[in-house]
Amino acid sequence: MTRPTPWYESAPLHGWLAHRLSVYLERPPVRIDPTVPLVEYGLDSVGALSLCGDIEDDFGLAVDPRLARELPTVTALAGYLTAQGAHLDRPEGRPW
Length: 96
Prior knowledge:
Layout: H1 12-25, H2 45-59, H3 67-70, H4 74-83
């Protein structure tokens, strides 16, 4: 019997966001619904600023911390980052 793939592993960018957010939200990625606003999980300005720093470091994109309010869900953030040219290839079996 095979287990279904978790939502955050279905696309590398979603997985990257889920794993980064899991640190700031102090919850496992599987407990982050990609359609729920991140403020409902308690993402504060420090977490949003840290996430923006991660995005800049890993993708070379300067992101305003207000983006977390304007694009409040993992799905919205992933869509925006994809539109900005963010691309992430995670080698199979490698941790985030």
